[in-house]
Amino acid sequence: MTAATLDRPATSARLLSALQVVHWRNLPLMAGLCIAAILMLMPFLWMVGASLRPAGEAYRLPPSIIPREWTLAAYREALGSGIPFVQMYWNSLVVAALSTLGVLITASMAAFAFARLEFRGSTPLFLTMLGGLMVPPALTLIPLYFGFARLGLLDSLSALILPAMASSFGVYMMRQFMLSQPRELEEAALMDGASYWTIFWRISLPQLGPALAALGIITFTTSWNNYISPFVLIKSWDKMTLPAGIVALQGLMGAASVSVVMAAATMAILPLLLVFLVAQRFIIEGMTMSGLKQ
Amino acid sequence: MAGVELRGIRKSYGHLQVVHGVDLDITDGEFIVLVGPSGCGKSTLLRMIAGLESISGGEIRIGPRTVNDVLPGDRDIAMVFQNYALYPQMTVAQNMGFSLKMRRVPHADILRQVREAAAILGLQDLLDRYPRQLSGGQRQRVAMGRAIVRNPSVFLFDEPLSNLDAKLRVQTRVEIKALHQRLRTTTVYVAPDEVAATTMAAGIVVMHDGRIEQVGTPLELYDRPANRFVAGFLGSPAMNFFDGGLGGADGSRFVLGNHAIPLPAGAERAAPRSVVLGVRPEHIVVDAQGVPAEVVVVEPTGSETQITARLGGQTFTAAMHKRLTAPPGSTLGFRIDPANIHLFDGETGARIP
Q1: N or C end of chain A: smaller count of CB under 10 Å?
Q2: What's the complex ipTM?
Q3: pLDDT in tens, A124-150
Q4: Could you tell me which CATH number the domain at A85-290 has?
């Protein structure tokens, strides 16, 4: 017997057990979730479909997901439009990576302080920080604009990175996770003579792996998708990030060339899709363990 | 090495006081066990000695110095936690050497000291493993190894056997005792039940509701409990208590319903209104001439037989080293040896001398 035929019973057994998980009384729930999933997927599939059809076919009625005629013309046109997509890709990547790194560092350190250290004013400080979660980001944009104008940082990637390097959501999420971890390890380290910094760095942080991964992905995604900040704070094309670039492309091309815009959007979304595929386990873990969703 | 002195130690959480002015002297090299029901404050007291819990009042001295404001790492003590608290991302050797590394001991010395400690505990073959690759008993030994490797003045054990199965618990108890006999380091050990206390310790501290009820050797506490709580807490099966009064002209008899039990000579006392008579199960013997009582249940354990019986509406247990059967509901005669009677004040529970 070959390996391939040996594999087959195992595969079918796995399939069978997966099917058995679907109990009949869950059927209405499953049906509802399927409908919701289709509704969610629809615009996404339409975007990919639209990017692969000839210009002008996108708005044909009745609408269809699968193009009648396949072409990569829209991609060629988007890349050749004069908008520096490669540079924007790079900008988006730099901004997202540095913001994420910043959030991971600041959130885990602040969370350690809030979860483990006793200091005067800890609770009011934490509540104030939580209050920050209730301020809509758009509200901070104008003050940020004036602040960066004074600092001379307008129209630079720093204007996008610096404000994104701290996140009250991140602190809250990491704190909740830290509180759910047993304290004994840190106490043992304290008895062993470790400083608070050593305890944080050598004992607490290695245990935060799943939470850090989840927060990292959430932050990266948020930064990657951020449209409004670059639109307000960045003027030059070569400093623009992808979402703002796509909007600029739309303005440049006009409504007629929807497939070109969709091609650009599809290209923009690829790295995120990749991140999600690789790390979806962490995202779910991170969401469930912190007991919240963004 | 050093002794530990506690003077008027108090602990409050807001308005709730959980430890009420504890005084305790632990001499250098002594092995003492803190016992008491859960919530009695024994773990809190241990954690205050460790410095993991701040104290609300009083003074803690380790050796010659007051350590009230000294950080846990600078108190020269080591602690074994209930769940071992081994660092999961470090090997056994790294776990054991961590405290030395924090003290900037040269690498070669760390290696030597870890090897020595590992040899004492039989951990030589496990040094490269991670905690997750160890059994419960091995983890427990690594936790002890981490404590002994830096040769502290005081060991603290916080219920270190709770996560082990019964057989391993007995074995580890022996190992801890042997370790103490070898190292002679002052040891404070918190135990959830009295078995560990009576078998391991030179001294037992019985705690209840944040107070020390009695301090003494296991046999002192067993033979002359200071109050009804200690009497009931130490010993299994537990001491029997009978509520009654003192009778006779000179208060030389304990009166229980229609029965009068003579008290040992010289035991008459300025009688409180009500007294409680305590007697350990092994001091009640079956005797046809004794006080008749109704048998509730007979439990043969192999080495001894325990009989639960009812007398004047109060049940009691007798334990004897002979085999005996009696159907429930039958009547047996029981006799109490007056020499082994304990009397307690019915209201305060204090021992009547």
Answers
A1: N
A2: 0.82
A3: 999 998 888 888 888 888 888 898 889
A4: 1.10.3720.10
